[in-house]
From TrEMBL:
<dbReference type="GO" id="GO:0009254">
    <property type="term" value="P:peptidoglycan turnover"/>
</dbReference>
<dbReference type="InterPro" id="IPR006311">
    <property type="entry name" value="TAT_signal"/>
</dbReference>
<feature type="region of interest" description="Disordered">
    <location>
        <begin position="29"/>
        <end position="52"/>
    </location>
</feature>
<dbReference type="InterPro" id="IPR036962">
    <property type="entry name" value="Glyco_hydro_3_N_sf"/>
</dbReference>
<dbReference type="Pfam" id="PF00933">
    <property type="entry name" value="Glyco_hydro_3"/>
</dbReference>
<feature type="signal peptide">
    <location>
        <begin position="1"/>
        <end position="34"/>
    </location>
</feature>
<protein>
    <recommendedName>
        <fullName>beta-N-acetylhexosaminidase</fullName>
        <ecNumber>3.2.1.52</ecNumber>
    </recommendedName>
</protein>
<dbReference type="InterPro" id="IPR050226">
    <property type="entry name" value="NagZ_Beta-hexosaminidase"/>
</dbReference>
<dbReference type="GO" id="GO:0005975">
    <property type="term" value="P:carbohydrate metabolic process"/>
</dbReference>
<feature type="domain" description="Glycoside hydrolase family 3 N-terminal">
    <location>
        <begin position="63"/>
        <end position="408"/>
    </location>
</feature>
<dbReference type="InterPro" id="IPR001764">
    <property type="entry name" value="Glyco_hydro_3_N"/>
</dbReference>
<dbReference type="Pfam" id="PF01915">
    <property type="entry name" value="Glyco_hydro_3_C"/>
</dbReference>
<dbReference type="GO" id="GO:0004563">
    <property type="term" value="F:beta-N-acetylhexosaminidase activity"/>
</dbReference>
<keyword id="KW-0326">Glycosidase</keyword>
<dbReference type="InterPro" id="IPR036881">
    <property type="entry name" value="Glyco_hydro_3_C_sf"/>
</dbReference>
<dbReference type="InterPro" id="IPR017853">
    <property type="entry name" value="GH"/>
</dbReference>
<comment type="similarity">
    <text>Belongs to the glycosyl hydrolase 3 family.</text>
</comment>
Length: 624
């Protein structure tokens, strides 16, 4: 079926009228267009009028090169600011010609750094890393503290792992329908990030996921209903603000309806202007009305918003015409990572930062390695400087972005004290109170989608249970939870793409069991080609069902999997595979928890995307 026509049927048949379904309202009207006071947005951008005198003194004392460097947030390798680990040093030298973060700061004075999983070992190490970066920053002539950012969305995207508290992901929280939980988990996440020296989180995700086959967003979104997404995004922004961490609504103008991953290709959103305003815009409008300090761009092409077909990150009609002028947004605009193919396909790496700044961006995130295996950041930095010298960019335009960045750092209190307090790490990160709050939130998210024949809840007593499917840690954790309740649990992990031999072994093991619990992770991704899961998970579930042994499927990522095996008697959606989500699922299996989650998306019929197999808001309960 033609993808554009399929999408139109999906949009028309499944999302029309959803604003009324949720009983929630997105921000609309004049207040949604105006930048609110506070939140780092209320300062005037013109010629120093109404600006902070201290920040203006810093800005006027900076060289053009210093200003350009302040626009960049860089990836760094290693576990400390002064690492001498050979592998990290080699990687940093390829990127920047310097050994570590401290040397990069001394040489270039960038605006900040972003942490990835490789930078994280434990909370005390991260706090020491952050403090090392800030010491290096404060040793520079202008004493400008560093932005230290990460992606701690919760659920499947979390750089800080246990003992840090693991929040349910966006779609899981939306299944619980409690904005109070969304706000509380953002506050907890923010407090723990700030305790280890991270002052900006690239969250929450404000995309409205209306494409079940979206390869890059999915459960990172709060769902397919614009009003539900708007309410949850607003709650999380307020939670992060209460923890004094910068929230970042992403990915403007909306990455929720694409079959292409912008890391590896150039997605095109074929929404009409009316569809975009109805579906994609409301969460960003709500975020602006809530005073969000930062908005991240998307490397997506939206012809209805910019016929030039430039990706939004490089589109002046989108970033300036819509975001700045129409919506009145006055905060910081950060690009998505500049090493992604979605922004690199059309223009050379040295042109991209100049075009992003001309479009209206402020922060340039994660310059890539070039084709020669060397980092392009030095060349991108030089390109910005040269663009000003040549007149393509004005220095006033650079000043406007640098001032926004400095003002945001001041609003976070970084000029006053940029350092993490080592004594607070143990008192803040992964505390019993935080962990209990995460478990309570997760307990409200587990969604019972199907329960034919009363398979669930399981009755007390000894039984033999096979736990199979995706994830060594996931199946082992579920097996342990089931065994703890008196069952004899056999665990047989089969991975993302089970082979025929693995399927046959699982089927043989299932024949003498009382119950099979099968774990799936994006089983719907059945394309049998590189980069996709293939049909193995679907084949596994169908083969297990054919044995006659009762099968309970637990989808631990996207809830759409059931469309590929609608005949299974019982199906739970957890929307994530955190330890808390798995404990909640086990408690629901045994009736210790009454399932309370409701689908935050519509699950369509496999071959008929305009027809709902399970509608938005569906969720079963044991007790009425």
């Amino acid at each position: 079926m033609n993808r554009s026509r399929t999408r139109r049927r999906w949009l028309a048949g499944l999302t029309a009228g959803t604003l009324a379904v949720t009983g929630l309202t997105a921000a609309t009207g004049p207040a949604a267009h105006a930048a609110p006071p506070g939140g780092g947005q209320g300062h005037d951008q013109g010629h120093g009028h109404g600006k902070d005198p201290r920040l203006m003194r810093i800005l006027r004392s900076m060289t053009l090169e210093d200003k350009a460097a302040q626009l960049f947030v860089l990836q760094i390798h290693g576990l400390s600011a002064d690492t001498d680990d050979p592998a990290a040093v080699e990687a940093n030298r390829r990127l920047y010609g310097a050994d570590n973060a401290a040397q990069v700061m001394a040489r270039y004075r960038p605006g900040g750094f972003i942490y990835y999983g490789e930078n994280v070992r434990d909370p005390h190490q991260v706090a020491a890393f952050s403090n090392g970066i800030q010491r290096a920053a404060m040793a520079q002539p202008h004493r400008i503290p560093a932005t230290i950012a990460t992606d701690q969305e919760g659920g499947i995207v979390a750089r800080l792992q246990p003992p840090a508290t693991q929040s349910p992901g966006a779609m899981a929280l939306a299944a619980g329908r409690r904005t109070a939980d969304a706000r509380a988990m953002a506050r907890i996440t923010g407090r723990e990030l700030r305790a280890v020296g991270v002052n900006q989180n690239y969250a929450p995700d404000a995309d409205v996921n209306v494409d079940p086959a979206n390869p890059v967003i999915g459960v990172r979104s709060f769902g397919s209903d614009p009003a539900l997404v708007s309410a949850m995004v607003t709650a999380q922004i307020r939670g992060y603000r209460s923890a004094d961490v910068t929230a970042t609504a992403k990915h403007f103008p909306g990455h929720g309806d694409t079959g292409t991953d912008s890391h590896t290709g150039v997605p095109e959103i074929d929404h009409t202007r009316e569809e975009w305003e109805r579906l994609d815009l409301p969460p960003f409008r709500a975020a602006i009305a809530a005073g969000v300090d930062s908005i991240m761009t998307a490397h997506i092409v939206v012809p209805s918003l910019d016929p030039s077909r430039d990706p939004a990150t490089l589109s002046r009609p989108i970033l300036t015409g819509i975001l700045r002028e129409r919506l009145g947004y006055r905060g910081v605009v950060v690009t998505d990572a500049l090493d992604m193919d979605g922004v690199r396909a059309e223009y050379g790496d040295e042109r991209i930062p100049v075009l992003a700044l001309k479009a209206g961006a402020d922060v340039l995130l994660k310059p890539p390695l070039g084709d020669d295996g060397r980092g392009v950041f030095p060349r991108q930095l030089a390109a910005v400087v040269e663009a000003v010298k040549s007149g393509e960019l004005t220095e006033e335009r650079i000043d406007a972005s640098v001032y926004r960045i400095l003002k945001l750092k001041q609003d976070r209190g970084l000029f006053r004290d940029p350092y993490a307090d080592p004594a607070m790490v143990g008192r803040t990160v992964g505390t019993p109170a935080h962990l209990a709050a995460a478990q309570r939130a997760a307990d409200r998210t587990t969604t019972l989608v199907r329960n034919e024949g009363g398979v669930l809840p399981l009755r007390p007593g000894r039984r033999d249970v096979l736990v199979t499917g995706w994830g060594a840690a996931t199946t082992a954790a579920l097996g342990a939870e089931i065994a703890r309740r008196g069952a004899v649990a056999t665990v047989r992990q089969t991975g993302l793409s089970p082979t025929r031999a693995q399927i046959d072994e699982a089927v043989a093991a299932a024949r003498d069991q009382d119950l099979v619990v099968a774990v799936t992770n994006r089983a719907w991704d059945v394309k049998d080609e590189p980069g996709h899961n293939g049909p193995g998970q679907v084949n596994l579930v169908r083969a297990l069902h054919a044995t006659g042994t009762p099968v309970v499927v637990i989808a631990v990522r996207d809830p759409y999997d059931i469309a590929w095996f609608p005949e299974v008697p019982a199906y739970l959606a957890t929307h994530s595979y955190t330890a808390e989500a798995l404990r909640s699922a086990a408690a629901v299996l045994f009736g210790e928890l009454n399932p309370r989650g409701r689908l935050p998306v519509t699950v369509p019929v496999r071959d008929d995307p305009g027809t709902a197999l399970y509608p938005f808001g569906h969720g079963l309960s044991y007790r009425r």
